[in-house]
Structure formats: structure tokens, C-alpha cells
Amino acid sequence: MNKFAICLSLQRGFSTLFTALIPLSVFISGIGPAHAQSAATKPVVTRSADFIVALVNSEPITNNDVQKQRSSIESQWPAGTPKPSAQELTAQALDQLINEKVQLQQARESGIRIEEEALDLAEANIARQNQMDKDQLRAKLTKDGVSLATFRTQLRNQLMTTRLREREVETRVRVSDNDIDQFLRDQRGSQPPMGIDLNLAMILVPVPEDSTEAQITAFQVRADAAARRARAGEDFAALVKEFMGDKVPNGGAMGLRPSERYPTLFVDSTQNMKAGEIAGPLRSGAGFHVLKVLEKRQGEAPAIMLTQTRARHILLRTTPQLTQSQAQAQLQKIKQSISSGRSTFADMAREHSQDGSATGGGDLGWASPGQFVPEFEQVMNRLRPNQISDPLVSRFGVHLIEVTDRREVPVSERDQREMARNVLREKKLDEAFTTWQEDLRGRAFVEMRDAPQ
To answer: Does a structural domain hold residue 219?
Structure first.
């Protein structure tokens, strides 16, 4: 099936396995020079016939199986990232095949069956994801020499192993509210701690700088009396008026404010107190203070900000008439035209882009992280506002991207918790899947035969 590069990947992680209606990640690559394997890069085959490279519980994996899997891995390798050596790719292909074989055997033993209706639905889903109807998908399969029976067998196997994983792994993973609370606390641990908002009322017995020891003692006795009467329950506002005069507003209350805006002496002396309690007398350079805690509340958590990007793009889809390399060359010329001022990005998008954003000049609107496919988003995130990328390849075709603006937006508490839940679930799923896969493979009998070529 390497001529028609369909990836029914079992090793793509849970973000693709469990987020779709049918947990299946399928990509159909165009046929052309960008996907062909040159004679210079083909592995040297020293045998004229296929041969067994491994037995998994007595079921064989052949050299041809490994080479097909390797071709599939190569066809999906992200553009612009270093590709492993031929030996590493072959080892990775064999490892994937062993894992798939073990899981498929377990699915059969567990009694998992795929009904024809489910298979038809999955086939229709693949066609829709690749902007085809079922008849067009089947015509392309036939054109590329892939029988419908072979395709549906591969699809059935994918669905069987995916159902097995859902049953054996997904059901084990739970994210509790306590998990989310702890995650958010850990995340906020790297930020400034949440402060306390205080409202304090104060009686000040001033001490002039040139006061004698006897005078200071007298002032302290006066402050002690004010504190004693306040603790006895006398009205604090009346005591403020008695000890400080009629001109002190609000009964000595200083107003609710973040604790950082009060003197450290005041904060330290009231940090373990509740509303209504009295602190002091406290000595400062101004004199003796008697404080009453009127109100104390936890400050709001620092807002979590999310970076959103506004971008536009020009998309060219590869076809037998427009290869990937030709699309890249065409977009490079368009970029030069825009950079020289001969044309604008919006005009070029309206004229050339092959998706729904073309009528709006390629504008994709404000996007949050994770909204676009990774190969697109990684390039977009590296661009500065008003900077245009080089042509890049994604599963949808070849793009030219321009970032027009960025902004920081606050994330609501509800959205924060939902984001935390998703992050924790992905992490737990990955960990559970790794453990399950290792356990399943450890219980299988794998006999390695001749090395693949």
C-alpha cells in the first residue's frame, strides 16, 4: 500500500486516538515526485523473495511488511525536521508492527468484532476528512493499485485495536476535581502568590522625635489604655474620636486594599488575626498604633493569560497536475511579489488560495493555541507580526502564512479548569497507554528471525 500512502497509525498518541467521533487518524498523501522514493534511497535488497523477520505468537512479520511500514513512516515525516537514518526507520517500523500485531491478537481474543455498518461509517469518515465522497475514495484506491478488500481489512484492524485501547486504557483514566485543584496550585506556584486584601482601622498615639523617656512612657500608657478598651468591646470609631480627635475620617478605617499597600509592621501583626480582633500597641517611628481588623479576604488569583494569534494564509492543494515542489515554487514567487510591494497578501489570497478563507483575503481570525494542525502552528508561532513564512507543507497542502497581530487574553476560571482537565487526561492516557502496551508486549512471545533489509 505504499503507492497510496494511507496511515492507519496505531502509535500517534491519544490526542488522535480519543478525540474524534471515530478514534482514527487517517491521512491520504498525494502521489507525485515528493512522495516517490528514488532508486538512490531505496534499501538494497539482497534476496529475490520475501522472508520472515519476526514471529509474534506464531504469526509472521515479513520483510515486505517492514518496508511498507517504513515507507508509511517516511511519507508522514514532518517537513523540515531531521529524518532518522535508514537503520533507525527500519527498527521503528518493525517495532510498530510487533506492537500492532500483539494488540490485534488481543483484540480478537477479547471478542472484539467490527460490524459492517461501523466499517462503512469509518470509510465515509476517511473520505470526508480528505474532501472526497466514498466513490471518489474508492476510485483513487483503484487508480493507485490498492484493492478495496485490502483497504477495508486494514481499516477493520485499526478499528479493532482502537476499540481495545478504549476499553483497556481509556476506562482506567480518571481526572478528579482534586487533581485539577492540585494542578492549578502547582501552576500558580511559579507566579507571585495570591495576596490578602485588608481593611484596618487605626488609633495612633503620636510620639514626637524629641520626646524624653518619661514622655514616651506616658504615650505608651495612653496607647495601652486604648488597646485595652478596644479589646473589651468598646466602639472603635468612638475610641478613634476620643484619642485622635474629630478630624479622622471613617472612624479610623483605612479601606480595603491589597496587603502590600500596608506597612509590613501592620501586615505581620495582623496576619494570624480574624476580623474584629485587635493588634497593638505597635511601635513605629511615628508613635504607637492600635489596629482593628475590620475585613480580611483572599486576593484574587493572578489572571492566566492566553496568547492568541491572528494570521492569514494562502493554501495550494497538491494534485497530479500540481506537485508539492511546484506548489512550493509558486508560493515562493507569490511571496517575492508581496515583499517587493507589487501585490498584497490579501489580493494574492483571493486570487490563488484554495480554501474557504480566500474570499476574506486568507484571514483565519483570532486563534488560540492548538487550533491549527501542529506543522502549521509551529511555523506560525515563530513568525513576528507582519512577517511572512516560507512555503510550508501540511496534511492539507502547501501554505504561505502571514501573522498580522497577537494579543493576550484572560482565561476564565471555568476555561482554566477545562484546560487543566484536558492536559491531565492526555498525560494520564499517555502514561496508561505506555504501561498497557509494555505489559501486553511482555506477555507475548516474539521470536526475531532474519534482520529486515
So the answer is: yes
